Write a sequence for this structure.
C-alpha cells in the first residue's frame, strides 16, 4: 500500500495518530447490524398488525358468542383487565375474556392451580382452549404486545427478577411464546403445591425466562409462525391429524391392492365417505388405548401391542357393521388388508421417529473425547440389554467391547456384535489394559461367585459397578 499500517495503539508507522479510524470502522460494522435489526422489527410489526387485524375480523362472531355466554352465565363483566409490565418496563392493561368469578383477584393469589374454585365452569373451557386470550389481539394492534413474545407478568413478579432476567423486558411481550407451549398444563403443575404462588415464582418463572431468552436469540417470522401453529393446535390434535393421514393412506393402499380403485384414478366421493367411517372409528379406538397422549417419538413393544389391540377392536366393529350396512363400508377382504397395513404403517412411522430422536440426541449430547471402553461380566438378558443401551446411545459416552461369562456355550459367540471372550478370569489376561470400566450384570449369581469376581479387580485400576434388576424398569 503506502507503507503505512495501523498498530494496536492506533498510530501509523510514522507516529501520526489515526484514532478517528476506529470509530469510523465501528460505525461501518454497526450500521448493517442496526439496519437488519430495524428491518426485522418492522417486518415483525407488519406481521403482527396484518394477522391481528385479520384475526379480529374473522373471529368477531366467536367474540360475540363468548361475550354473550359469559354475560348470561353470571351477569358479570365480559372482559378482565389487569396491569402487566411490558417492553422497557412500561405498564399496560392486558385484556382477557373473564374466566373467574367477579373479584377473584382480591380473594386469592394471581396464579391459579387446577381445581381453583374461583374459576367458573365456562372459564375452564376458555382456559383449556386458550380462547380467553383472544382479546389480546387488540393489545397487539395497539402496539402494546406482539403475537409471539415473552408473556407479560404482573409488577410484583417482575420486581423479583435478577439483573440477568430483567433483559427479557427489552422484548415486546406476546400472546404466546415457547413458555406458553411448554407450560400449557401449568395449572396441573400448581395443583399439588401447598403455596401455588411461591412455587410459581421459585420454579416456573426462572424456567419461563430461560425459554424466552432462548427464543429471543433465534427469533424470526418462521419460528413465530411455528409457535402460533403449535398454540392453535394442541399436541393431541397434532397426533390425531398424523394418525388420520397414515390410516387414510393405509385404507387407500388396501383398496388399490384389492383392485377396487386405481392408483391415481378412483371414485373419491365413495372413498372419502368410507374413510370417514373407517378412520374415525380407528382413531376412537386408538384414543381408548391412550395412543393420543404418548410421545410420538418414543416407541416400544408395549405401545405396539396397544396399537394392535386398538386396531383389532376397530376392525371387529367394522366387520360387524359391514354385515348390516355393507354398501357403506369397504369389502371385508379390504378391511382385513387394511388392518395389516395400518399396523405396519403406524409401527413403521413410530420406529422411524424413534430412530430420528435417538440420532438427534446423539448428535446434540455426545460428550467430547473418546468413549469409555466397557466390559460386561454376564452375557445374559441383563448384560445384553446393557450392551445395546450403551452401543446404541452414543451420548452415554460408553462402548461395550467384550462380554465375560461362566457359561462356556456362549464363548466365542457374539451378542449385539460384541464378542463373548470367555470366563471372567480372562480379564486378567491382558484385558484389564483394554478396558476402562467393568459392569457386573449377574442378577442371579451366587454370593460366593460374586465375591470371587470382586476379588479379581483388587489388583487393577478398573472402575467396577454392579447392575441390578431394577435397571430394567
Amino acid at each position: 500500500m503506502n507503507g503505512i499500517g495501523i498498530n494496536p495503539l492506533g498510530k501509523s508507522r510514522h507516529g501520526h495518530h489515526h484514532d478517528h479510524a476506529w470509530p469510523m470502522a465501528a460505525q461501518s460494522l454497526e450500521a448493517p447490524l442496526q439496519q437488519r435489526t430495524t428491518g426485522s422489527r418492522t417486518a415483525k410489526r407488519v406481521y403482527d398488525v396484518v394477522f391481528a387485524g385479520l384475526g379480529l375480523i374473522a373471529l368477531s362472531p366467536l367474540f360475540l358468542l363468548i361475550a354473550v355466554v359469559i354475560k348470561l352465565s353470571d351477569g358479570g363483566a365480559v372482559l378482565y383487565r389487569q396491569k402487566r409490565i411490558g417492553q422497557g418496563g412500561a405498564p399496560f392493561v392486558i385484556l382477557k375474556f373473564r374466566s373467574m368469578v367477579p373479584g377473584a383477584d382480591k380473594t386469592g393469589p394471581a396464579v391459579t392451580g387446577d381445581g381453583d374454585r374461583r374459576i367458573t365452569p365456562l372459564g375452564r373451557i376458555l382456559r383449556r382452549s386458550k380462547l380467553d386470550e383472544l382479546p389480546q389481539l387488540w393489545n397487539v394492534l395497539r402496539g402494546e404486545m406482539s403475537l409471539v413474545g415473552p408473556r407479560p407478568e404482573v409488577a410484583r413478579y417482575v420486581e423479583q427478577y435478577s439483573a440477568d432476567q430483567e433483559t427479557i423486558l427489552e422484548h415486546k411481550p406476546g400472546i404466546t411464546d415457547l413458555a406458553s407451549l411448554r407450560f400449557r398444563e401449568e395449572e396441573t403443575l400448581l395443583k399439588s403445591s401447598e403455596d401455588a404462588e411461591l412455587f410459581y415464582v421459585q420454579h416456573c418463572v426462572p424456567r419461563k425466562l430461560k425459554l424466552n431468552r432462548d427464543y429471543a436469540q433465534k427469533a424470526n417470522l418462521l419460528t413465530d409462525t411455528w409457535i402460533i401453529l403449535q398454540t392453535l393446535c394442541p399436541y393431541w390434535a397434532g397426533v390425531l391429524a398424523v394418525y388420520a393421514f397414515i390410516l387414510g393412506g393405509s385404507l387407500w393402499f388396501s383398496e388399490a391392492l384389492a383392485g377396487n380403485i386405481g392408483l391415481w384414478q378412483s371414485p373419491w366421493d365413495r372413498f372419502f365417505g368410507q374413510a370417514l367411517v373407517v378412520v374415525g372409528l380407528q382413531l376412537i379406538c386408538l384414543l381408548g388405548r391412550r395412543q393420543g397422549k404418548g410421545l410420538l417419538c418414543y416407541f416400544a413393544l408395549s405401545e405396539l401391542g396397544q396399537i394392535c389391540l386398538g386396531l383389532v377392536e376397530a376392525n371387529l366393529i367394522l366387520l360387524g357393521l359391514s354385515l348390516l350396512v355393507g354398501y357403506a363400508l369397504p369389502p371385508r377382504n379390504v378391511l382385513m388388508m387394511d388392518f395389516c397395513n395400518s399396523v405396519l404403517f403406524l409401527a413403521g412411522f413410530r420406529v422411524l421417529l424413534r430412530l430420528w430422536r435417538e440420532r438427534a440426541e446423539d448428535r446434540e449430547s455426545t460428550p467430547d473425547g473418546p468413549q469409555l471402553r466397557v466390559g460386561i461380566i454376564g452375557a445374559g438378558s441383563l448384560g445384553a440389554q446393557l450392551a445395546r443401551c450403551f452401543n446404541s446411545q452414543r451420548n452415554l459416552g460408553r462402548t461395550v467391547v467384550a462380554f465375560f461369562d461362566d457359561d462356556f456355550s456362549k464363548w466365542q459367540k457374539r451378542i449385539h456384535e460384541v464378542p463373548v471372550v470367555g470366563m471372567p478370569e480372562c480379564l486378567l489376561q491382558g484385558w484389564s489394559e483394554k478396558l476402562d470400566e467393568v459392569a457386573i450384570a449377574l442378577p442371579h449369581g451366587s454370593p460366593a461367585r460374586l465375591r470371587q469376581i470382586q476379588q479379581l479387580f483388587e489388583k487393577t485400576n478398573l472402575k467396577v459397578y454392579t447392575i441390578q434388576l431394577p435397571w430394567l424398569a
User: Anything to note?
Assistant: Residues 1-33 have pLDDT under 50 and may be disordered. The beta strands are 79-85, 91-97, 146-148, 174-176, 372-377, 398-404, 414-415, 418-422, 437-440, 463-466. Residues 48-232 form one domain.
